[in-house]
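I'd like us to work through together how a protein chain folds, taking it slowly. To get us started, please write out a protein record for me. Label the sequence line and the structure token line clearly, so we can match residues to local backbone shapes. Once you have written the record down, we can walk along the chain together.
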Amino acid sequence: MKTVKEGEVRRREILVAARELFVSKGYEQTSVNDILKVVDIAKGTFYYYFSSKEEVLEAIILDIVEEGARRAENVLKDKSVPLVNRIMMAIMAQTPEFEGSDEIKEEMHKVENTKLERLYLRAMLKRMTPVLEEPVLEGIERDMFHMEYPTECIESILLLGHMMFDCDVFEWKMEDYPKKIKAFLCNVEKMLGTKEGELNVLMNMFGQKP
């Protein structure tokens, strides 16, 4: 057990060092040797845990998904917040909060790194869908939401939010965002089967006026 524990600690040290280097130097500019110097390990030790620098980045992306899911779970525990607000806040909790997270996202969204983008999407949907199912089913039970396919509805909302606001696919200008956010919330209302305008109050959460 002690050996396993020490292995987990060593693997975590590599990931922490790599994340900091990817943020400060950039993924392309960071070499395996750079990571070795920070962690102070031999090359053989690195390759015992990871087969390549890309595999390290993949592990970091999975960590980011897990961190976001845990934030979402904490948000959903606060029963003093209205149910709809909690659900939307939990979805927004997916946004990485560590310094330099934009650099990691930029690397993930590059055309040549579609494998990383798919990895993130698969992991995010697998981890977050069960997290959101309980509050969505609660909304159905309370006659707030009306839908035939709760699981698929959650998956669609997660994918829509990611594609619209996380990927920089559309290259919108700042003045475009109020309309895009309103459209997103309107579509979420339709998918959840809740009453029109139910989510207008959430514009404040996006830094916009309702």
Observations:
- Residues 77 and 88 are 13 Å apart (CA to CA).
- The two ends are 55 Å apart (CA to CA).
